[in-house]
Write a structure and sequence with these properties.
Elements: E1 6-11, H1 15-30, E2 34-35, E3 44-49, H2 54-73, E4 78-83, H3 84-89, H4 92-96, E5 102-104, H5 112-116, E6 124-126, E7 146-150, E8 152-153, H6 164-168, E9 172-173, H7 176-188, E10 193-197, E11 205-206, E12 209-210, H8 211-219, E13 226-230, H9 239-247, E14 254-256, H10 264-269, H11 276-289, E15 294-301, H12 308-321, E16 325-330, H13 348-371, E17 377-385, E18 392-397, E19 402-406, E20 415-424, E21 427-432
Parallel strand pairs: 1-2, 1-3, 3-4, 4-5, 5-6, 7-10, 10-13, 14-15, 15-16, 19-21
Antiparallel strand pairs: 8-9, 11-12, 17-18, 17-20, 18-19, 20-21
Bound molecules: iron/sulfur cluster.
């Protein structure tokens, strides 16, 4: 029999899944497989899936149905489902989709080559949580200026609406040495910006190294010029971490700090372990330590029993904190979670209405925030050509805002200073300062 030689990966969901897809590419590449230019011509089609929202799962179910035609055209093609949906739906997926060959959970990716090359063309699952699996020795494939590094996997927080602790298992932190080693290797490959990833980076701990300690060590890695991290649970954001962010010149002045809901009663039902006033005090403290920091957040509309008054408290927090951006969601029950046992009693049209009001409040403030930046200077790490105009570069400021600047003599990977001239949509447009020097060239 002929073994699959090419693969194509479709990725859904969060940054951790994007990182895991790069990890899978490295595992398959080490086994001699190469990426296919499109899914139709691939020997193996992998879907790396997300279970966090119902909508994301429905999209994958619909794609899986469509992929039956690909298999009909090419019966040798292997179709593999990875990620959180594998852990959540397990064998049921093989029954429901007879053209699906393999279902492999997030801790089983090392087994992919062997499973894909099994002598007998078996349809099987590789599931289960392996608390020892941290993929420490695998450096994911990268082609860009920025890269993710997973520093912890799983979660112990059990927010009542969230499926992650069930599908990704308990939290485990990677050894700091292996994270720093990965950063150094990435730097030697031309990566200049690192985003440290974890479901809750603030509770990272390996032996005596906590997240503040890790950030300080990361700041010392040569040739990495910017460090970001995501996601921060408010209950674990320590003063020491804020000190580390303020001290470390490479730590980007941006914090993604999900608040989820504005009412104490809803926050209790969500098991978020902070109150509205604690969240607001924390925001004030963050701004005292790092003036001008950009704050973004996650918010859910229509959690069980949420009233209009409760929702108004969510809007009040949006207006008070003045976030630069937010991931906003309409609540949908995830089977197996504590919230799924609560009455899903906010009518769909009310959820949609609240979501729209929430989005409109966030966007209005985000636009106002951007207008305040006109004439101000920021550093931009150049990433690639602007999609709209090939004579301009696209990059990101230290606050994680998208910026476009004229190409001039600069190249991707360089850090330049720009002065903002106009705002186009949510993009800063400006000129490179005449006196500015590229800070780093590779
Ligand atoms: S902190 Fe809460 S929302 Fe985030 S992954 Fe853990 S359980 Fe889910």
């Amino acid at each position: 029999m002929s073994f699959p030689k090419t693969y194509y990966i479709e990725t859904f969901g969060c940054q951790m899944n994007e990182y895991d897809s790069q990890l899978v590419e490295t595992i398959l590449g080490a086994d001699g497989m190469i990426p296919a230019s499109d899914k139709e011509s691939s020997d193996c089609l992998l879907l790396n899936t997300c279970s966090v929202r119902e909508h994301a799962e429905q999209r994958v179910f619909s794609l899986l149905s469509q992929h039956k035609a690909l298999k009909n055209n090419n019966p040798a093609m292997k179709i593999v489902l990875l990620g959180c949906m594998a852990s959540k739906h397990q064998d049921e997926l093989l029954h429901r989709f007879p053209h699906l060959d393999l279902v492999v959970g997030p801790d089983g990716y090392r087994n992919l080559p062997a499973l894909m090359k099994a002598e007998k063309n078996i349809r099987t699952t590789w599931l289960g949580n392996n608390p020892l699996e941290e993929y420490n020795d695998i450096i994911p494939a990268h082609t860009k200026i920025s890269a993710y590094i997973a520093i912890a996997r799983g979660c112990d927080n059990f927010c009542s609406y969230c499926v992650v602790p069930y599908v990704r298992g308990g939290e485990r932190s990677r050894p700091a040495d292996s994270i720093i080693e990965e950063m150094k290797q990435l730097a030697s490959q031309g990566i200049r910006e690192i985003t440290l990833l974890g479901q809750n980076v603030n509770s990272y701990r390996y032996n005596d190294c906590d997240f503040a300690g890790l950030l300080r060590r990361a700041n010392e890695v040569d040739d990495i010029i910017r460090i970001r991290f995501i996601t921060s649970h408010p209950k674990d954001l320590s003063e020491d971490l804020l000190n580390a962010m303020a001290e470390c010149e490479k730590a980007a002045p941006h914090l993604h700090l999900p608040f989820q809901a504005g009412s104490d009663r809803i926050l209790r039902l969500m098991n978020r372990k902070y109150t509205r006033s604690e969240y607001l005090e924390l925001v004030d403290k963050v701004r005292r330590f790092i003036p001008g920091i950009s704050l973004t957040t996650d918010i859910i509309a229509g959690f069980p029993t949420e009233t209009e008054d409760n929702f108004q408290q969510t809007l009040e927090i949006i207006r008070r904190v003045r976030f630069d951006d937010a991931f906003t969601y309409r609540y949908s029950p995830r089977p197996g979670t504590a919230a799924a046992e609560m009455p899903d009693d906010v009518p769909e049209e009310v959820k949609i209405d609240r979501l729209e009001r929430m989005i409109s409040a966030v966007r209005k403030i985000a636009r106002q925030n951007l207008q305040d930046l006109i004439s101000r200077k920021f550093t931009v790490l150049i990433e690639h050509k602007s999609k709209k105009d090939p004579d301009w570069w696209m990059g990101r400021t230290e606050h994680n805002r998208i910026a476009v600047i004229p190409k001039e003599k600069y190249k991707p990977g360089e850090l330049v200073e720009m002065r903002v001239e106009t705002i186009a949509g949510f993009t800063l447009k400006g000129a490179i300062e005449i006196e500015a020097k590229p800070i780093f060239i590779y």
